[in-house]
Amino acid sequence: MEKRPRIKLIPTLGDKILELMGCLSLFALWYLMAVNYDKLPETIPVHYNTSGKADNFGGKETILALPVIATILFVGMTIVNRFPHLFNYPVKITKENAFRQYANASRMMRYLKFISVVILGVISFKTIPNAAGTSDELGEWFFPLTMGFIFIPVIYYVLKAFREV
After folding, report:
1. Residues 119, 26: contact at Cβ < 8 Å?
2. 90-116: per-residue pLDDT in tens?
3. What are the two backbone dihedrals, phi and then psi, of residue 145, each rounded to the nearest 5 degrees?
4. pLDDT tens-digit map of 124-149
5. Residue 138 CB: number of other CB atoms within 10 A?
6. Residues 25, 121: contact at Cβ < 8 Å?
7. What is the DSSP track for 48-114?
8. Given CB 3.0 to 4.6 Å as the disulfide criterion, which of 21, 31, 72, 98 pairs with 5?
9. pLDDT at 149
10. 123 contacts: CB under 8 Å, gap ≥ 6
């Protein structure tokens, strides 16, 4: 493995705001669970197909998997983001481009961390009325929007990495 420069990145205001939004989203997801868990019926939707319709059901405790997964992802991505010199990059990292490449990759990681929590939060938020019988789906646009919120920014950041060589 090539020896890459280790640079201490100082988060910009935008990075700090994105980080705060992620933390607040994670807190809101746990709060949503705390407030609504006792109100849930014993059987709830636990899986949705690509059309957004519930296609599998299980015990209400399974809804706790969503905030747990969100927390593990958030903490794990926060730790990984401290080591941008270990990331995979589409370009060769040099002393000249290391700061720009690391900052770009770190920002992408912050965005993905935030959007992952939001997506799991929306699933949780929509599962609560689905479990109560007032709705039975996430909506047909959920899957394509989710894919767009993940892949469009990733493509953007990868293209930006090529431009910032």
Report:
1. no
2. 999 999 999 999 999 999 999 999 999
3. -65, -40
4. 999 998 888 787 789 889 999 999 99
5. 24
6. yes
7. E-TTSBEEEEEEGGGGGHHHHHHHHHHHHHHHHTT-GGGS--SS---TTTHHHHHHHHHHHHHHHHH
8. 98
9. 96
10. 48, 66, 138
Residue pLDDT, tens place only, 19-63: 999 999 999 999 999 999 999 999 999 999 999 899 999 999 999
Could you tell me the two tokens for 15?
Answer: 């990075």
Tokens standing for 100?
């720009």
Q: Which of 85, 92, 43 is nearest to 63 (CA)?
A: 43
- What tokens appear for 143 in the block? 């899957």
Please say whether the beta carbons of 55 and 47 come within 8 A. Answer: yes
Interatomic CA distance for residues 142 and 123, integer angstroms: 9
Crossing angle between the packed helical segments 98-132 and 65-80, to the nearest 10 degrees: 180
Overall residue count recorded for the chain in this entry: 165
Give pLDDT, residue 153: 95
Model pTM? Answer: 0.91
Structure tokens at 113: 């961390």
Identify the three-state secondary structure at position 135.
coil
